[in-house]
Structures are given as C-alpha cells and as structure tokens.
Amino acid sequence: MKSIAVAIDGPSGAGKSTIARAAAGHLGFVYVDTGAMYRTIGLAVCRAGVQLGETEKIQSVLDAGLQVSLRYQDGVQHVLLNGEDVSGLIRTPEMSKYASFVSAVPAVRAFLLDTQREMARTHNVIMDGRDIGTVILPDAEVKIFLTASPEARARRRFIELQEKGEQVTYEDVLTDMIQRDHDDETRAAAPLRQAEDAVLVDTSDLTLEQSMEAVEAVVRRALED
Ligand code: DC
User: Fold this and answer.
1) Distance (Å, rounded) from C-alpha 99 to C-alpha 79?
2) Interval 53-106: pLDDT, tens
3) At a CB cut-off of 8 Å and minimum separation 6, what does 152 contact?
4) Bridge partner list, 31
5) Helix 93-103 × helix 170-186 angle, to 10°
6) Which residues pair with 125 in a beta bridge?
7) CA-based nearest residue to 42, from 65, 11, 66
8) Which residue from 34, 86, 94, 160 has its CB within 8 A of the most atoms of ligand 1, so it is best to mutate?
9) pLDDT at 82
C-alpha cells in the first residue's frame, strides 16, 4: 500500500515540531524531524574542528564515511551519528548555529535527501522542516506552511528560554529570530518558502491547543478527500 506523507514547513518558533509530533501520535504516523538531521551534521562538523563559516571544509567531513540515521523508541525519534545516539547533544544554541551553517551547503542537503525520502517511502510520515513540501516530498498528500509573526514566535521562544533559566532579553530573541528568517529565506539552496499547494496556518493569535486543532483539521480534511 502506498504510504501517506504530510509535509509541514515553516520558520523556526512557529511550533512545527510540537504540533507535528502530537499530530503524528494522534494519526499513528511516524514523526520525522529533519532539523535534527541538520543539527547532527552540524555536530559532526563541529567535532571535526571546523569553524562556522569554513564551508570549504564540510565536504571532507561528509566524505569521511559520515552516517546519519533515525531510530524510533516508543514513538520517539532518536538521531544517530555513526551509530551513536546524539539526540541529547544537538539542542544547544551552538548546534542551532552549526545546523543553520551546514544547512546552507548544497552537498549537505543532497546528503540527507535520500534518507528523508526513504523514510516517507516506507512509512506514513509527518515530516517537518523548511523544504519538505517544495523539494523533498513535492507529491506529499498534505502540505502545511505553519507560520506566525516574528513577534509571536520570539515571545514564545523568550518564555521557553526564561523557563530554562537563560539570561536573555526579548529584544535579543526577536533580533535573532528575524536574522534566522532572513538567512533561511534568502539562502541559495532550498530557501524557506511556502509551496504553492500548501495550506497556510498562521498561529500568531492561536494557543498551542488551537494550533494543533487547526493543523489536524487540515490533515483530516485532506486525507478524507
Ligand atoms: O528546525 P530546527 O531549528 O531544528 O532546524 C535546524 C536548522 O536546520 C535551521 O537553521 C534550519 C535548517 N533546516 C533546513 O534547512 N531544512 C530542513 N528541512 C530542516 C532544518
């Protein structure tokens, strides 16, 4: 039987991963967090001693037999770097920077493409990222572009960071958010953009629960057709 794919793209802080994970659980689909894969390559590049900006050194890291794979335990995605579970190491501000750096490199995107497509070929997936509906799964049954205003996304991220005890100001978080949006939208390789056939869901004025309901309603409607 042909598998079903739901592609969710959008800028950082729109709630993609929380919403996609919950929706996948409700639908019995596999949640694939592609950002974690870029973060893992970022970790490998960092461990190899490559500094941010040293783009020309990335290819040799990929060529050194690098393997990124996904494993699921109790429905939770774990990402493996050459067999080592690095899921707990990739959610740091430094790895966000490395992920953003490596994600602009076409060879890195090409390197991950097959693994991502293979997951969608063999499982019903909800896959989130920046280029899932436009590049990775252009034939996905459902495409959603999940976004929110920079201010709403920065406010949520600011609260999250405060809860973790990090010393940041809302203004700094907003400035970072706007910079990351700009980098993601203007890079030459697979820039962030809404696929023509994607449904736009704007969560600026929605609670998390309302955002989840909005996304699941789009998915259910599309799958019923
Ligand atoms: O969603 P995230 O913050 O974990 O993503 C980390 C970085 O990877 C972010 O800078 C955007 C990039 N990314 C990408 O370019 N393409 C994807 N499909 C997923 C993430």
Assistant:
1) 14
2) 999 999 999 999 899 999 999 888 999 999 999 999 998 888 988 999 999 999
3) 203, 204, 205
4) 126
5) 20
6) 5, 30
7) 66
8) 34
9) 96
